[in-house]
Amino acid sequence: MKYIFFYLVIQFLPVAQSENIVDFLRNREDLSQFLLVLQRPGLHKAYLDRQVTVLVPTNDVLLSYRGTRGEDFALNHIVNSIQTQASLGDRLTSLVSGGPPIWITRRSAWLYFNQARAIEKDIILDLGNGEQQVVYVIDGVLEPLRPISVRNATFSQDVTAGKLLRSSTLYNLGSGHTTRIFHSAAVLNKRDRMFDVRGKHTFFLPVDEAFKVVAKEFIDAKVLEAHIVPGQLLLSTLIPTQEFGTVAYSPDQAGVKVNVSLQPSLAAGGKVMVRSNTISGDIVHPEGMVVSRIVKGNIPVQNGIVHLIDKPLMVVARTLHDYVMEEGSNPSNRLFRFAQLIKDKGGLFGETLLESKDGTLLAPSNDAFRKLDTDRLNYILSHKILREEFFGLHFSRVRVSSNDIQIRRTGDNIFSVPASWATNRIWIQYNQLSQALTVEGRGVNATAVEKDIGTMNGVIHVIDTVLGIPNMDIAMKMRTDPTMSHSWSLSVATRLSGYLAQVSPNTRFTFIVPSNSAWEKVKRDFSQAFKSLTDISTPEFATNILKRHMIIGDRDYTIEQLVERSLRNPTGTIPTETDELGFTGVVETQFNAYKEWYVSWGKDIKGKIIRPNLECTNGYIHLVDTVLMDDNIRLQLRTNSGSTNILSLLVISAVTVASTVCR
Fold first, then answer.
1. How many CA atoms lie within 13 A of 527 on its CB side?
2. CB of 106 within 8 A of CB of 97?
3. DSSP 3-state of 508
4. Among candidates 148, 168, 169, 177, which has minimal Cα distance to 72?
């Protein structure tokens, strides 16, 4: 019955009217590069009229491929049997000498051959006389693992991860990659046989260049075990992956437990990252994450897949300062600009990194510096206090990794830590769905392009934006910040949004912006007033509420300056566009990052500033957890005519310009 079913599957699959694979490719311009490969002389030409399965890379991937395209390359894309989707098992064997495996992986509706995804499946070619060929079009190249010399055929036979580890100098691994040091450590610790265990495993082999930074003495038995994921194939094209237990994952409650996952690098042209997570350590192996880059991946061997990596997993051997300086010593390295800035202007910041016992470093990439306002940066660097505050925004003495549960908080409860220059705080958030780690320092948002680089005294996140130098106006900041979406919608509805986008030396905004939860409290506690906010027949009500939260003038104010102005005024308040607000701070320390700030309206309405000093190109935003209003609609329709002159002038100016343009 099994063979009858297989025969019926073959018969009812769509049949293309081509004699063989060569004829099929002649009719496909998008696959013409592989036709050129098959037309070259070699053993593969003997199979072009036989019943075979052919895996055909697209032109795009072949044009970007820089390896050789000889006989073995062609044979590695041919299987000496007909294999439809219905008949595929866990692996195929190519025609290359030694029978290297082609591992089959299924993810939802997708089908993968090693790391290459099938984008067209089960194309049947009729050879006549009841014979057929099966074609899959794939989005990757299946590069054969071949010994440098063909004289000794034993190096082509039964190539396992262990054999590759032992004899790495005899294989063409590209860029001179070898694994002799890691192999020596495996032999010394009696773990070399683990790399020959039969099955379907993933092996991570650090190349010899990795040990120019990490001493080989750090590689013990547990570290070696952490480089093998048993029973799983982790492919660089199927990322991000979940964490999988390694051989170093002890079932004992008190034992060492190490997981490994593959993660994308968000840096332009970045390599796939391997992240080890020691979730339970011991006196020799501390808990924490170590990130390494795959320098050559998806190497199929008889017992799984091998990835060559640029640094041993699980080993933490450098300090924060050493990591940045050593990585940044190469002009082509992603941290070169940041390392040079610390070296030239860092001063106390460099000493802080050297002396710190623990912490989190937010290291801007070279790309982050390229999109920076250079004049603004030079101005900051020329003033001592501004310079120290700028550097301090990129480091906290609190270690925060992407697996910390507390950074998953959202809304008003976003997690924050004090910056090392303790006048500011850094807000950190992790999105589990997108696996994006984002940070905010003084109103500037950045995303980590590399996360959780472990060091001896902290963790490093490489970020895509320099903190502390504003790059958005108030309108753009409100539009892009999810915690301000309700205030932004109301600003658009009341036509105040256009003014908030104006950037002028003589017009600066200080906006006390209610958070989304603040508006939810209004809906719950002041139902009558909330109805008026959404009533289009009384737009002036919502406008006056927003303008109560605004100060517009020729300068803007930090939260510290607002509190100082309130203290100097006998009434304890500051005029806004339609009212007066009072600002206070709970002074328990001299460091502003640890202070709590409050704003009040009248005697009964008081809100907490949950994110102060969000600096924009045209002013400051201070996010508050309470809308400064109550349920008395008539009282709140009053307008302070003296305070609204500036905003009125802005409105008149905008209307005048619009009228001129229309004419």
1. 1
2. no
3. strand
4. 148
**Nearest-5° Cα angle at 202, 200 to 208:** 140
**pLDDT of 658 strictly over 60:** no
Q: Which has the closest alpha carbon to 191: 182, 199, 200?
A: 182
Question: CA–CA separation, 248 vs 225, rounded Å?
Answer: 5
- Nearest CA to 411 out of 629, 610, 628, 613 is that of 610
Q: How far apart are CA 502 and CA 475, in angstroms?
A: 9
**Is the CB of residue 361 less than 8 Å from the CB of residue 394?**
yes
pLDDT per residue over 189-219, tens digit each? 999 999 999 999 999 999 999 998 788 999 9
d(CA 320, CA 605): 46
Token pair 């802005």 is found at 650
Q: Which amino acid is at 384?
A: K
Closest by Cα among 518, 517, 515, 582 to 548: 582
Asked if pLDDT for residue 1 goes beyond 60, the answer is: no
How confident is the model over 463-500, as pLDDT tens digits?
Answer: 999 999 999 999 999 999 999 999 999 999 888 999 89
Q: Which helix (H) or strand (E) holds 605?
A: strand 605-616
| Mean pLDDT in residue range 18-27 | 87
Instruction: Using the Cα atoms of residue 482, residue 488, residue 490 and residue 492 in order, give the sign of their dihedral.
Output: negative
pLDDT at residue 533 in the model:
80
DSSP 242-295: PPEE-TT--SSTTS-EEEEEEE---STTPPPEEEEEEEE--SSS-SEEEEEEEE
Contact between 615 and 442 under an 8 Å Cβ cutoff? The reply is: yes
Helix/strand/coil for 473: coil
Distance CA 617, CA 505 (A): 10
What are 79's strand-pairing partners?
53, 94
Distance (Å, whole) CA 447 – CA 461: 9
Task: Quote the pTM value.
Answer: 0.74
CB 359 within 8 A of CB 398: yes
User: What separation in angstroms does the CA of 238 have from each of 107, 162, 402, 489, 502?
Assistant: 9, 24, 20, 39, 45
